Amino acid sequence: MSETSGGWLSRLRSGLSRTSEKLTSGISAALSRRTLDAATLEELEEALISADLGVSTATKLSAALADEKFDKEISDTEIREALARNIADILRPIATPLEINRTRKPHVILVVGVNGSGKTTTIGKLAKNWKSEGKSILLAAGDTFRAAAVEQLKIWGERTSCPVIARETGSDAAGLAYDALEQAQKDNADILMIDTAGRLQNREDLMGELSKIIRALRKLDPEAPHSCLLVLDATVGQNAHSQVETFKEMTDVSGLVMTKLDGTARGGVIVALAERFELPVHAVGVGEGEDDLQPFDADFFARNLLGLNS
User: Fold this and answer.
1) Residue 137 CA to chain centroid, in angstroms?
2) Maximal CA-CA distance, the chain
3) pLDDT at residue number 1
4) Quick check: 270 and 234 in contact, CB under 8 A?
5) What confidence tens digit (pLDDT) does each residue in 30-59 have?
């Protein structure tokens, strides 16, 4: 992490506090008998589900606890430590930073997600991070139906000194993506990031548009896009599952970015997504600032989810 990591980790800890308070209060309530019996396990499972870890994950974690401590006296801290270890085991395989392939010029990243999930802001923050590493980046305003999205991406382009390819509202997004890749190849850019629309109420239209964008890119690079990032808003909780399913139908989602962890008590959904889909979580966000998106740290996340100091 960068020199801002101390402040970032503090913000992430603070951002997870609503989720951890909900989860730890549920654990404390379940442990009124101080013994890990069947009734206590059932209450613990309900506490995990209520924090959006999902039924499958909650069952798995409860079973692991039962294997270790069933019918034994156990403290609140011991329970939380054991859960944190098991959650970290689930998360570690998917905590993977997004690697840019230097042999590709450019590495093409298609960014998808529903409107309001934080796609455009995520693009800007990733651009800032990579720009600070000396990479050259081109941004493409592929959400051509929302003037606000185009303007927002232009602002991020100015902030990060990254050129932005944009067209007038209502333009063909696939044509814009083609032009952007052509320009990025001409400029020998390291990275091309393409914003997209996210109107799920018009699902068939959106599916067709994303397919068309991918076909257009492959006329210039048969392997493009090289990454497809799905941006998820943590505040939607279990609805994140249906969003992953929907976008996996539309395009080959290669990894996730989770935003707005500071605005919800539903941060546990990352654990449920990790177990169910096994997609890499490249980064998590806890605010609107330029440095508020950082690589996902499984152990730090798991311990702070359970209200434990890292």
Assistant:
1) 21
2) 68
3) 41
4) yes
5) 887 778 889 999 999 999 998 889 999 999
Type of residue found at 66: A
Tokens 């493009």 — which residue?
224
CB 193 within 8 A of CB 202: no
Listed in order, strand segments (DSSP E) in the chain are 107-112, 137-140, 164-165, 191-195, 227-233, 255-259, 281-285, 293-295
Omega within 30 of 0 (cis) for the link into 280: no
Distance CA 5, CA 3 (A): 5
The token duo for 253 is 């989602």
Cis peptide before 225 (omega within 30 of 0): yes
Cα separation, 266 vs 59, whole angstroms: 18
pLDDT at 4 over 70: no
CATH number belonging to domain 5-94: 1.20.120.140
Short-list 161, 118, 117, CA closest to 139: 161
Q: Which helix (H) or strand (E) holds 242?
A: helix 239-250
C-alpha to C-alpha distance for 235 and 7, rounded to whole angstroms: 22
For the chain, what's the residue count?
310
Q: Which residue has the tokens 């076909």?
A: 215
Give residue 267's pLDDT band: very low, low, confident or very high (50, 70, 90): confident
Q: Which residues contact 42 (CB under 8 A, 6 or more apart)?
A: none
Q: Which residue ranges does the chain devote to CATH 3.40.50.300?
A: 107-297
For the chain, residues classed under CATH 1.20.120.140 are 5-94
CATH topology classification for 107-297: Rossmann fold (3.40.50)
- Dist. CA 43–CA 300, nearest whole Å: 25
Compute the distance between CA of residue 291 and CA of residue 51 in angstroms, rounded to an integer: 27
- What is the per-residue pLDDT across 93-114, written as a single tens digit (0 to 9) for each? 999 999 999 899 999 999 999 9
| Alpha-carbon span 108 to 227, nearest angstrom | 7
